[in-house]
Amino acid sequence: xxxxxxxxxxxxxxxxxxxxxxxxxxxxxxxxxxxxxxxxxxxxxxxxxxxxxxxxxxxxxxxxxxxxxxxxxxxxxxxxxxxxxxxxxxxxxxxxxxxxxxxxxxxxxxxxxxxxxxxxxxxxxxxxxxxxxxxxxxxxxxxxxxxxxxxxxxxxxxxxxxxxxxxxxxxxxxxxxxxxxxxxxxxxxxxxxxxxxxxxxxxxxxxxxxxxxxxxxxxxxxxxxxxxxxxxxxxxxxxxxxxxxxxxxxxxxxxxxxxxxxxxxxxxxxxxxxxxxxxxxxxxxxxxxxxxxxxxxxxxxxxxxxxxxxxxxxxxxxxxxxxxxxxxxxxxxxxxxxxxxxxxxxxxxxxxxxxxxxxxxxxxxxxxxxxxxx
Length: 374
What we know:
single chain, DNA polymerase, domain 1, 9-stranded mixed sheet, 10 helices, about 30% helix
């Protein structure tokens, strides 16, 4: 397989042929929300009431907005809260504590999100694009191609829905709150930079202007879009950066991750290290272990050497046993090979933890999201 250059405009989201989603309350800044409410003939303070209902009470149902006159709430909801996502199907695993939702968007595009409840945290894996244009060879999403970018509100709605589900006790274990959000679902987050960053701002803004989450509990992943990684480092929002590397050498990585033909392994790692230097946030290196493809001992040593050469304490490596994808010729590494790979990374002083593969039986684990109907 030969990698081909990928040219991406980072200045603005790229829209597919399906068109632009309707404007939603969440797409607006607090100041714009006041203006929008006023334009609908309502008092400015209604904007804060709406924000409280959406971000604090996690609802856009007019029937729940009992502090607003009925005529007012109906008009505001109709004008500012168009339906952007409709849950088409949910699948569960792990005794119901892993929930994958297939969403139909306003124009028929499809995305998936995965909610995972653990003993001490709850994590939602969200999508930022319908499909993906980067064509990583082992990823089901990458084989779909890119339909379009999601809007800020389409991304945030995935989060609100999951947070409401947890608050309502719909996931086994009783009512709880959403603690972590990872941009590791469908799409390359940094290829939809503007909407993703606006989403992050909504997630971390204090209530009622946002969801009030800790930036440290938000992870943005990338396959190595260096200019956008450097831009992210200067945002002043200390999210966790996850670099999906998957190979330490350019020859193999260009086959597995075609964007490597534009930004090499060393360029991507250097950018990740700059992110650490700028933010003080330890970077995660994601590495899908593929049997007899990238799991060789010498590649573990090469990866360890490259990471260690840039210093200590700046990085954590997450090997991920390859999750099965229909019709793929590849499979996960042998457990003994996986253990050797981990041991060699640790021998170079690289903190290493094998990633949990929850949800693989419902095609909800890393690399498996394909938005299939059946």
